[in-house]
Predict the 3D structure of the following.
Amino acid sequence: MKFDVDTHTHTYASGHAYSTLLENAQAAKEHAVKMFCTTDHSESMPGAPHYWFFANQKILPRFISGVAVIRGVESNIVNIDGEIDIPLETDCELDWIIASLHEPVFMPANKAAHTQALINVIKGGRVDALGHLGNPNFDFDFHAVIECAKEHNIAIEFNNSSLKGVSRIGSADRCLEIARIARDVGAYVTTGTDAHFCQQIGQLELVSDLFDKIEMPTQQVITHTTKQFLAFLKLRGRPFIAEYKELY
């Protein structure tokens, strides 16, 4: 399966990534990516920037090197109540908010606690996607969370870095099961490289193989085309982006 959009990328602003936004855009162009989300870590992650970094993304051009740039963040789920670590007033400056569980911010607990945190962040209504759910350190009730995500139009991320075993070792088999449940439930899914270096952007071959293996319907894959991704943002209540009118 092909993907026109990469919804999870980092710049060196995250503190442990190694490329600039300009370098990421150029790499996206070289890898035939039509649109990418810039999603640096929010401030609870060690080394991450202050929330002003995200609030100020309004100054970014909508196209860099001919590639559409979606303004976003990978926020941290900070507690079982599903709170995330960016101020509410920042949301209006962003197009795309991922919420993820990270060990330095949310200490791994038990299946029930992780499940409750994920369900609460979904019901909170602020986030568009749940990041790298395959992490075995954060076991959860797959069916309960994915069915809740389906009900609230939240995308389930499939993360090429997790599948590769570079990060969150042990995720691959769990991702396969999560993908099958998402397919059967009819949940929206999204695809991200979780690139921490520009050359990784758009390299989604393992996610593609996974989706092909289980015959994931393309209509559920919001990154299959830019039009599908922008339609998902509209479904989520995000404002129309005039600069992308030709892509809708």
Remarks:
- Residues 9 and 38 are 5 Å apart (CA to CA).
